[in-house]
Amino acid sequence: MSVSTLRQEFILHFGEMGSRWGINRTVGQVYALLFLADEPLCADDIVTALGFSRSNVSMALKELQSWNLVRLRHQQDDRREFFTTPDDLWEIVRTLINERRKREIDPTLTKLRELSMAEPDPSDRAAHARIAELRQLIEQMTRFHDDLARFETERLVALMNMGARLGRLVDGAGKLIPIRRSKPQSKG
């Protein structure tokens, strides 16, 4: 299976970016190949296209399955497993956000809640207050995410396209109803 120059560049870049996002370069490249593939690919196709060992491809596919980023497909009269990515880009983004939240934000929020419940030592009152402030912010962000997650894709896209207009609306509403502004950052 040959890979065009366009696809090679995308695959290489995705592997580089994947390592910055905390996933193995091989996993990123396998995902990029599947993402651009015209049809579902089996592990042998991936090995041929990318030149990776069969074991590396198998491990990458297992990791992508654990992230719910690839779909297993069976083809009639073929015992091999074939893989593809969801066609809906929004589904991919939502899956990534949900998986990152489960793996990174939820455990942090759990720890912040534990720390907030403890009675602070007098010398730790400032640290305790900062932890509580961070916990409240993350809880607010996760509630906002939950609200957005309930939107169907079309409404979410419309909301995102409103961007600057929404900001102006909030600014205008702030003139009618006082909205607490964050403190300006000190330069120094």
Description:
By secondary structure, the protein is mostly helical. Helices cover 68% and strands 7% of the residues. It is built from seven helices and three strands. The termini are far apart.
User: Tally of extended strands?
Assistant: 3
Unreliable spans are none
Distance between the termini: 57 Å
Percentage of helical residues? 55-70%
Sheet of most strands: 3 strands, antiparallel
Shape: extended
Which structural class fits the helix and strand makeup? mainly alpha
Strand content: 5-15%
What does the radius of gyration come to?
23 Å
**Nearest-integer average pLDDT:** 89
Strand adjacency order, main sheet = 1-3-2
H/E topology pattern: HHEHHEEHHH
Can you count the helices?
Answer: 7
SSE topology:
Layout: H1 5-20, H2 25-36, E1 41-42, H3 43-50, H4 54-66, E2 71-75, E3 78-84, H5 89-117, H6 125-149, H7 153-176
Using brief descriptors, characterize the structure shown.
188 residues, mainly alpha, 3-stranded antiparallel β-sheet, 68% helix, 7% strand, extended
